[in-house]
Amino acid sequence: MTDRLHGSARRTIGIYAPLLLFVAFALFPIYHMFLTSIKTDRALYNLNLNPLLVSLGALTAEHYRLLFTDTLFASWLMNSLIVSLSSTAIAMVISILAAYGLTRIRFRGAATFGIAIFITYLVPYSLLFLPLTRVVTWLNLADSLWALIVTYPTFLVPFSTWLLMGYMKTIPEEIEKSAMIDGCNRLQILTRIIIPLAVPGIVCATLFAFSLAWNDLLYSLVFISPTEKKTLTVGVLTELIRGDVYFWGSLMGGALIGSVPVVVFYVMFMDYYVSGMTVGAIK
Amino acid sequence: MAKLVVENLTKRFGSVTAVDRLSFTAEDREFLVLIGPSGCGKSTTLNLIAGLEEASAGRISIGDRQVTHLHPKDRDIAMVFQNYALYPHMDVYANMAFGLSMRGYSKAEIGRRIQEAAEILGIKNLLQRKPRALSGGQRQRVAVGRAIVRKPAVFLFDEPLSNLDAKLRVQMRAELSKLHQRLNTTIVYVTHDQIEAMTMATRIVLLKDGICQQIGRPLELYTRPVNTFTAGFIGTPPMNLVPARIQAENGKMMVATDGFRLPIPARWRQAYERLKSKEVIFGIRPEHLRGTREGDIAVDAATVTRLEVDLVEMLGSHVQLTLTCGPERLIALADPALPVKAGDRIPVVFNMDSMHLFEKREPQRRIDAAPAA
């Protein structure tokens, strides 16, 4: 009896101790960001204080006030949301159609095309911005959010298509044949059978695509210069570092708020996300 | 309820011919089984009938309609797949309703048909469940139910029992046979399991490398296989096939091999005269080869040969003996009470009335005593 209790206690410790370590490791940057964003500058720059703690007297909301009143932070946040959501939506529509076509419709060159997509996905996107700059200028989209909405899919589509292809391959072909006999055409098979079954994969791809778009710095930095059109990543970086002056508190506050949407989405879709990740692990 | 006619059906995948000028007819209400080893083109044939693959050549008609180039949904067929292919995101009711609602049936009619099918299959209590909450046998029933509600002209079954365990397979086999009688409809059934073919089929189409070997009633394939392939494929354990020579001796015709010399029954002597000195393949089923004990029973000494036992397998109802016969191995059956062990030399009775002869050269066709009229 006691042995068994010991056994289960040991198991609990064996599982949770490493987990706690990992959680601490993962949460530390967030903790530090948060702490920095609510400390007064005086406390922040005092090297004699413990940087990982804050005294009640040194708390301030000043950094957030600055963020929302003295900068266009709210606009950047909005811009980021608009750009990320629209480019993700566009990318998902294209990717779902492409992934289905490439995995299921037998046409000449389908396999080659699939591999080509994979190779595109391997091209570093930091190489692509040079030619894309010319495209954006040619399309007359420079300095508008459209520049990003149109260019983000260039790296989102190959990535999500590849991910979705892997997922769709796991859906037995007989289900489709069955649907065909039941009277579905290709589009109906896609909308009524494949998409509902691929939800975990689609959610997973959407989340990844969204965070890729949300986190982008390079394209946004290159294609957009007016302050009010900037996305969050670029806005925070360019407007809160002036010369060699770092507005640490506000910088961290901005970064913290910036990471909220991604965290919220991931938590919301946790179950799907996890089952999407482990696809093919067990048959 | 309709007749299915397949004429010169051919399917090529690149340079591979999966189905080669296949022709057969499934009469109205027939239970036709397509059988053959893996890769013989039986599933491809079924997919062609269903319209899931486009035929390279040939014609398919159902009832009096040409369906060769029709979309699967317009062919009036229903198909049951090996892995059931249920829609995992729909419950049983929705699975069965899907095909009907795609065809615009009213809710009331759909409900009526589903209740009826569920009644027949005994799955009324499962209608609200998702496929993942069902056992293999239950899934199979739902898959059959999904086909039944459509009331199609022809049912297509693609190895529907292969994923079930042995016991359940036997049970479902009987149920499918009963279902066929009850529904009174045309069924084309693909399997690689010859027991399924023998027990359920009204007729069997045996395929090899996309080419039809033989079409006939189960017993016909068993008793009169048209070539050595059919002979070896139908029946477990398979027919013994040994190269032999036909010899005339004292006015008798003899089958001679490296291990034995046995007389051909008198009534066939005349007919086999033409084979004198010819090389042939001699075939005899294990149940027509009986291992015995010296002096056990009075047998015509002419049909007894002493052979060495290589392996003894006790199966309860009988013993299966593997015998050495020159370079060949023969399988014989014996009474379980027979005291025999490997290495023994025992008298083996050949029931020569049940022998088969095949040509030596490919495709090793059957040689009949009386050439077909």
Total count of strands of chain A: 2
CATH architecture of the largest domain in chain B: 3-Layer(aba) Sandwich
Q: How many structural domains are formed by the residues of chain A?
A: 2
Helix content of chain A: over 70%
Regarding CATH, which class of the largest domain in chain B?
Answer: Alpha Beta
**Largest sheet descriptor of chain A:** 2 strands, antiparallel
Shape of chain A: flat
SSE series of chain B? EEEHEEEHHHEHEHEEHHEEEHEEEEEEE
The CATH class of the largest domain in chain A is identified as Mainly Alpha
**How large, in whole angstroms, is the Cα Rg of chain A?**
24 Å
Neighbour order of strands in the largest sheet of chain A: 1-2
Helix content of chain B: 10-25%
Backbone shape of chain B: elongated
Low-confidence parts of chain A: 279-283
Our estimate of the beta-strand percent of chain A is under 5%
Q: Average the pLDDT over all residues of chain A and give the rounded result.
A: 88
Our estimate of the beta-strand percent of chain B is 25-35%
Rg of chain B, rounded, reads 25 Å
> Structural class given helices, strands, pairing of chain B?
alpha+beta
Greatest chain-chain contact: A-B, 15 and 24 residues
Largest sheet of chain B: 6 strands, mixed
Notes on the protein architecture:
The complex is a heterodimer of chains A (283) and B (373). Chain A has helices spanning 2-37, 41-45, 62-70, 73-104, 110-122, 125-138, 145-168, 173-181, 186-197, 199-215, 218-223, 232-239, 248-268, 270-277, and strands at residues 241-242, 245-246. Chain A is mainly α. Chain A folds into two domains: 2-60, no CATH class; 65-282, Orthogonal Bundle (MetI-like fold). The two termini of chain A are 38 Å apart. Chain B has 373 residues and is an alpha+beta fold. Chain B folds into two domains: 4-228, Rossmann fold (3-Layer(aba) Sandwich), CATH 3.40.50.300; 240-359, Beta Barrel (OB fold (Dihydrolipoamide Acetyltransferase, E2P)). Chain B is built from nine helices and 20 strands. Chain B has helices at residues 42-50, 92-102, 107-121, 136-148, 166-183, 194-200, 218-223, 228-233, 266-272, and strands at residues 4-13, 16-26, 31-35, 57-62, 65-66, 77-80, 154-158, 186-191, 203-208, 211-216, 240-249, 252-256, 261-263, 279-284, 289-291, 304-314, 319-325, 328-334, 345-350, 356-359. The longest helix of chain B has 18 residues, at 166-183. Classes of the chains: A mainly alpha (283), B alpha+beta (373). The interface between A and B is medium-sized, with 15 and 24 residues.
